[in-house]
């Protein structure tokens, strides 16, 4: 059974930091690109970041570049998103997702974790 389980969300003040984690199971983790995608209230899904299967290559949306860092640990089947200098507009549900082919459809999704940036 495939599972992607996110954790680490919460309430943080503007300028603060959070680290999201996603634990994967039930599929061959190293065969997949891993992504973070978010959905703000009343808005459509927004791609945030991708990482390739080895962890050597990463991609970021312009809105988070320089503030967020994606990483993966293939020994532990986990992917993380370090979020610094958080802004109120980063408030969203953050989803972990897996895809075999970059920029194709997502094969697996997590249940999401809420991030709220507010003073």
Describe the structure.
It is a single chain. This protein has 119 residues and is mainly β. The protein is built from no helices and eleven strands. The chain has strands spanning 3-7, 10-12, 18-25, 33-39, 45-51, 58-60, 68-73, 78-83, 92-99, 108-109, 113-117. The strands form two sheets. Strands 2, 4, 5, 6, 9, 10 and 11 form a seven-stranded mixed beta sheet that branches. Strand 7 and strand 8 form a beta hairpin. The protein is globular. The model has no long low-confidence stretch (mean pLDDT 97).
- Low-confidence sequence ranges: none
Give the oligomeric state.
single chain
Tell me the distance between the termini: 40 Å
Order of helices and strands: EEEEEEEEEEE
Report the sheet with the most strands, covering strand number, pairing sense and barrel closure.
7 strands, mixed
DSSP summary: helix tally: 0
Number of strands: 11
Helix percent reads under 10%
Q: What is the percentage of strand-forming residues?
A: over 45%
**What general outline do the C-alpha atoms trace?**
globular
Cα gyration radius (Å)? 13 Å
**pLDDT average, as an integer?**
97
